[in-house]
TrEMBL record, chains A, B:
<protein>
    <recommendedName>
        <fullName>N-acetyl-D-glucosamine kinase</fullName>
        <ecNumber>2.7.1.59</ecNumber>
    </recommendedName>
</protein>
<feature type="domain" description="ATPase BadF/BadG/BcrA/BcrD type">
    <location>
        <begin position="3"/>
        <end position="282"/>
    </location>
</feature>
<dbReference type="Pfam" id="PF01869">
    <property type="entry name" value="BcrAD_BadFG"/>
</dbReference>
<comment type="similarity">
    <text>Belongs to the eukaryotic-type N-acetylglucosamine kinase family.</text>
</comment>
<dbReference type="InterPro" id="IPR043129">
    <property type="entry name" value="ATPase_NBD"/>
</dbReference>
<dbReference type="InterPro" id="IPR002731">
    <property type="entry name" value="ATPase_BadF"/>
</dbReference>
<dbReference type="GO" id="GO:0045127">
    <property type="term" value="F:N-acetylglucosamine kinase activity"/>
</dbReference>
<dbReference type="InterPro" id="IPR039758">
    <property type="entry name" value="NAGK-like"/>
</dbReference>
């Protein structure tokens, strides 16, 4: 199964790699919802998947491979697994947890590449052909999440606050964003935003405002377009951060450097494109000889599939995946020589 | 009484303006601790002050004037007062709530000036001689707090995270800050910071790291000095934000524009000075003809005293305060003509 900052998904896969059932659930990031809600949510999704596939819910699956946003810290992960074993002994025979980024990469390829997640939060992970990993970001909204839906929403709202305070002049008219904010959060002034920032703050709801900004950007509002351009720059900077550590073989495939783009913010690619391509072109111009081309990929399958594959591997089995059927190339760029 | 983001203070004042008793308490910002803890904390401090002054705790004081960080939103304030009346009928005959900034200003002057608070959080308020107010900031750590102890701590820690991620190059060596962070938060790596940012996040504890940075700055660490210089700039930008709205009479006193500096971060003035003076000089050079001089003031008395004065006024009485005894000028600057 796989979790993001807002939704989760479980896929039940046969030994031959066929998807038997899929189920959805709420956010299961244990940093955001706590360990209890995380475990209960996972158990609920997997049990529903067993029933949906016509299997006995009291028979454990062979392996539960989980690709979790927030699945980075070893001690916390071991505790999650221990708690699951104890509380839900009928859930699975074996358990494996990896991060959302690695689960996504395992869905797309067994050769590596760069994963850039931008959903509720953001994260970037380079996986080299030898399996070594280099991360950038993924620290959550209090210490990063640059280029994520949370960050885009925050940037737009902060621009309104700063303009009202005369603290920073907005680069564009704030009226569309201000009105959209008042509608989305059901407030009549900036003071009304305080509960949404503190007492009743919910990251996924706050981040959901990003959809309204995407609508505004598509309809031509300059400030909405501006925050997405900034998000494109921010996400590209994550790639630039890991570029020095990319193994040179990753540059030399047909697609150039493969960048797997995961998360709902990538649906607004057209709004982010100018900022994103600008930052990568600048970095390339400052001297990465091997870096001649890059391609942006999306998944056609849930990254839960990669989680399942890794869980099976961990349990000593192997799940055959048809990688080419799992991905879609939506943008390629070759730098001028 | 007066509250900040970390501590609170109550002063019991006689009709003649003499302080009969002072008591301390924890943070009573209702946004941070909730309405119940806020009310209980205030009641506890005031009742202890009555006992300390040899008064009957069951006899209400004439007036309870409160200067609260987070005391801005009218509906929330009315609810606080209603709850206090109902739950603690022996507390006071009348109630008055204003913000920490206005309570501080009322302690220093009845003519107005600019208050810049930088404690756990930050805030700026211009009070003109006619009583009109213009604010900048004060939205808490999710939407501002620029130049506050929280913000300084966050900036230093974010610099370490970004350097580790190769996302942003630090302007100075990060080793002192990284080590101080690991000691203060009792963690062995960046991953260990996640609970401090989320599950067990406490703004006042996070902000308390600022003291270690001040020590580092005084001992010569360049990154510590850098974050305080940035804080000086950020606080000065709050003043620049309200400058266009300053009544010209406020520029023409002996002190020039009076800026009342409240909160523990101002103890690190020497570290902030270069950034602060630079931003104000640039703003002055870009054309404020009346703005020839400014002076920075601190309070020698708790801003609870100004809260008490305003509470008394609201109850139809007046508390005589000797303003000159309440303030201290610690810096003056006259711009070159």
């Amino acid at each position: 199964m796989a979790s993001g900052g807002t939704h989760s998904k479980a896929v039940l896969v046969s030994a031959e790699g066929h998807i038997l059932a899929e189920t959805d659930g709420p956010c299961t990031n244990h940093w955001l919802v706590g360990v209890d809600n995380c475990i209960n949510g996972i158990n609920d999704m997997v049990q529903r998947a067993k029933i949906k596939a016509g299997l006995d819910p009291d028979t454990p699956v062979c392996s539960l491979g989980m690709s979790l946003s927030g699945g980075e810290q070893k001690a916390a992960i071991q505790k999650l697994i221990d708690d699951m074993r104890e509380r839900y002994p009928k859930l699975s025979q074996s358990y494996f947890i990896t991060t959302d980024a690695i689960g996504a990469m395992a869905t797309a390829s067994d050769y590596g590449g760069i994963v850039v997640i931008s959903g509720t939060g953001s994260n970037c992970k380079l996986v080299n052909p030898d399996g070594t990993q280099v991360g950038c970001g993924g620290w959550g909204h209090m210490m990063g999440d640059e280029g994520s839906a949370y960050w885009i929403s925050h940037l737009a709202i902060k621009t309104v606050f700063d303009a009202r305070d005369n603290l920073v002049t907005s680069p564009h008219d704030i009226n569309y964003v201000k009105k959209a904010m008042e509608e989305y959060f059901q407030v009549s002034d900036l003071m009304g935003m305080l509960p949404h920032l503190y007492r009743i703050f919910q990251k996924s709801h706050f981040a959901g405002f990003c959809r309204k900004l995407a609508e505004g950007g598509s309809a031509g509002d300059a400030l909405c377009q501006h925050v997405f351009t900034e998000a494109g720059k921010a996400l590209a900077r994550h790639i630039v951060a890991v570029l020095p550590r990319v193994h040179q073989d990753l540059f030399s495939g047909e697609l150039g450097l493969p960048v797997l783009c995961v998360g709902s913010v990538w649906r607004s690619w057209e709004l982010m494109k100018s900022g994103f391509t600008q930052v990568l072109s600048e970095a390339q111009a400052h001297g990465y000889g091997h870096f001649q081309k890059y391609s942006l990929l999306t998944l056609r399958q849930s990254s839960a599939l990669g989680g399942a594959k890794m869980g099976a591997q961990n349990a000593g089995a192997s799940l055959p995946l048809d990688y080419s059927a799992n991905i879609n190339v939506f943008f390629s760029h070759t730098f001028n020589q």
